[in-house]
Amino acid sequence: MIQMDLFSDEYFMRQAIIEAQKAFDKDEVPIGAVIVSENRIIARAHNLTEQLNDFTAHAEMQAYTSASNYLGSKFLNECTLYVTLEPCIMCAGAGFWTRIGRIVYGASDIKRGFLNSKEKIIHKKTTLVGGVLELESAKLITEFFINKRK
Predict the structure, then answer these.
(1) Which residue, 82, 131, 74, is CA-closest to 102?
(2) Most CB atoms within 10 A, among 95, 116, 133, 142?
(3) Which residues of 125-141 are buried (b: 16+ CB within 10 A; e: fewer)?
(4) Considering only CA atoms, which of 88, 60, 89, 90 is closest in space to residue 76?
(5) Which pTM does this prediction carry?
(6) Buried b or exposed e, range 71-84, using 16+ CB within 10 angstroms
């Protein structure tokens, strides 16, 4: 059994991976997210673009909305977003407007990730951490698309 510190980035990323598995089980692109405030998960989400027939229903967007509703504030500057895949430009832009304090992601997204943008998309006060449980995060996505190509 893997031992991890409670409240570590790895612990919370594992919670995001659980959300990604829920998306996988619903035949959605398996990306999961959680938002943490004061070492407590205040939002859990996964992709719902197929179920809701909505391209904006990414895991991060669902999590931002849920966390804002929980806190009663549009600003999430004291929160951390854990997401299994590097956010796309839309989700990073939404993170900019929420002023999210930290973004921690698992796997990089070479094709659609926001780090490919020439523009500065995340808020200047947002801390960015990548590669947390990268292999575990990428595994579900890889498996999902291999199954789609069969």
Answers:
(1) 82
(2) 95
(3) ebeeeeebbbebbbbbb
(4) 60
(5) 0.93
(6) beeeebeebbbbbb
Tell me how far apart the alpha carbons of residues 123 and 8 are, in angstroms, rounded to a whole number.
Answer: 23
The helix/strand/coil state of 43 is strand
| Tokens encoding 114 | 């926001």
Cα separation, 16 vs 19, in Å, equals 5
Tell me the C-alpha distance between 110 and 133, whole Å: 17
pLDDT bucket at 4, cuts 50 / 70 / 90: low
Give the rounded distance of the alpha carbon of 87 from its chain centre. 7
pLDDT at 16: 98
Burial of 24 (0-12, 13-18, 19+ CB in 10 A): buried
Report residue 74 as tokens. 């549009």
Residue 25, C-beta contacts closer than 8 angstroms, at least 6 positions apart: none
Neighbours of 58 (CB within 10 A): 25
Q: Which of 19, 28, 60, 136 is catalytic?
A: 60
Residue 60 known to be catalytic:
yes
85 is written with which tokens?
A: 């895949």
| Closest alpha carbon to 33 in 20, 52, 49, 50 | 20
